[in-house]
Amino acid sequence: MFDIIGDAIKKIRTFISKQTIEENNLEKKLTIQKVTSSILGYEVSRLLLFIIKLFIAIATSILFNIYLQKSLFIGFEINMREIDVRVFEFQQSIFSGFLILLIVFIFLWSLTGKFVLTTVFYSVAMSLLVFANNQKVELRQEPVFPEELQMIGQSQELLEMIDSKYIALGINILIMAVLSTIIYYFLVRKVILGKYTTKLGLRRIQIKHSIGTYIYLVGRFFAIVASGYILYFSYNFNDSPKVGELLKTDKSQLVGYNQLLNYRVNGFVTGFLYNMPVKPMAVIPEYSQEKMKEIEVKYLETASEINQTRVTNFSDTKLVYILSESLFNPSKVAMLEMDYSPLTEIDKVMQQSHSGKMLSTNLGGGTANTEYAALTGLSMANFQPQISSAYISFAHSQANDGTVVNFYKNGNQDKSQAVAIHPYSPRLYKRIDVFKNFGFDEFLYEGNLTYTDTHNGVNITDESAYLETLDELKKDQVGFIQLTTMQNHLPYGTEFIDRRTQEEPGLNLEDEDKVTFNNYLDRIKATDEATKNFLDQIELMDEDVTVLLYGDHIPGFMSKYADKMSDFEKFGTDFFIYSNHGRSQSVDFPIVSPIFFTNLVAQQNNAKISAYYAVLEELFKHIQAYSREVYYVDGQAKTYDELDDQTKEILEDYKLVQYDLTSGKEYLSDSFFKVTSK
């Protein structure tokens, strides 16, 4: 009886146990199905989120590509009449640029793995580029170049040149970017993925090892490699036909002589890539050691003949080169209708010395390039169009034998020291490295100057800069000084404490520029007075001193009126060469390139020159100024084809010398750069 009951209980227990196991197995199956369903839903949601992200990336790239193109026009208004190209070709260039911008976005996204971080960084960087490009177009009629991105490290100095209203706008854009990030993260990402990351307590380990994650990692690696490969060849755009094919760009259509037009016609991105790093000068087929030896012998003989009639050396006289920032005489511009000159004292000096118009290397900017040409005798017109700044690109490491400084290093040892003065930050345009390479013994700049007075706290005055220069001139060992002033640099939104001019009626300027113009007049009038006082002090010095003063370009705000000005008005600035003790000679030059300044100084002081400057001396007899497209002979503009054979020969000799110094193997010997005489 008990055995029967015991067997029954065992059977019941076995049955219950089997039922429990079956129920547990069923529950597990259901759980697995639910987990699988959740993981599948999670992966589908991730795919949906990826598509949304990709759409945002594409939309963002399209938007910034459009605004980069619009930033090439004043007021962000595209004017097709300013572009000599069909609408279809223009639209094609816009689309091509979008692809590169999208690849940049994908590369950053793949590299960081953080979409939000990439979007914010990309948007801020592109917004700054759009703003900087439009500002440069308005002020200088040229776009931003790749090499100028190196100046990001000088953000503090750059911000000081920007109107405060634009800084406020930038802060507002940054706030909007932060708010957009918050909206994306909490409303988009959480809504799409949130329920799948919490449902059934889905563990992170299951998500981490899901097949979608592996696909994501492989895809991300591929994206880094592919986009990085394309960007590498984009960096080498000028040497790689592959990128040109991607952009559907015929490089023969690139406009090297007018970079703004180049960017406008081919699109910002293509124009930007066209200006990626290249050698300073294109290869000259005739360049060889034998050819350079022939040129050296030829001009050593020429220098000896010139020096037979000259009785002084450069180092017998102390020499000051003054690049006067944004100095030009507005009374010589017809559209301004001024009936008086704000530079009366400078006008008097010009009437009694070597003086005239200098052909500026840039419109409304390019100070460092003009400074470079004056110090080295090397023409920016001979460099490849992609070289927007010699200082940034290569001047800090180029051969320096031809600089005017060498006349003092190789001359009178009592006046062998050279000093550079720039009352602003030394970091812009790599001036510390450049001046060191050029042989300057000391560089005085904002931070180590004795005189630092400003007007309304804007820029250090010319009066202070002149006082600093006088102190250096009094030092026996100092023979040469390069002064680059800052008083007349933008911004022009502040007035001097004591206004020196009255409002100008009848100016053909926009209302917003009239106030700017009057503030500018205040500043150049102060320059005029300070220059007179400076030269009065020079005249009282016992030692012979020669001063070359020149304006580097017209002020940036005048660039927008370039189409209403003649070439001489928009590219011509005043210069003079003054020598104390009655040694100045009155000679007027219609137009002169800054590469010839040292030769003109030598002529006025009757100083001997090297074979290098003999090349420039001979060239000056035939061409007094030139740009990439125009050559000025006795004040008349000519094309290259209109030059005679002798002029072309000397010009080609000069280009070969410049190539040897900046892009070649430096075949020319030291003798070529030293003063010789029979």
UniProtKB/TrEMBL annotation:
It is a multi-pass membrane protein. The chain crosses the membrane at residues 47-68, 88-108, 115-132, 166-187, 213-235. Keywords: Cell membrane, Hydrolase, Membrane, Transmembrane, Transmembrane helix. It comes from Vagococcus allomyrinae. Residues 319-599 form the Sulfatase N-terminal domain. GO terms for molecular function: hydrolase activity. This is Sulfatase-like hydrolase/transferase. Pathway: Cell wall biogenesis; lipoteichoic acid biosynthesis. It is found in: Cell membrane. The lineage of its organism: Bacteria, Bacillati, Bacillota, Bacilli, Lactobacillales. Its main location: membrane. GO terms for cellular component: plasma membrane. Pfam families: Sulfatase (PF00884).
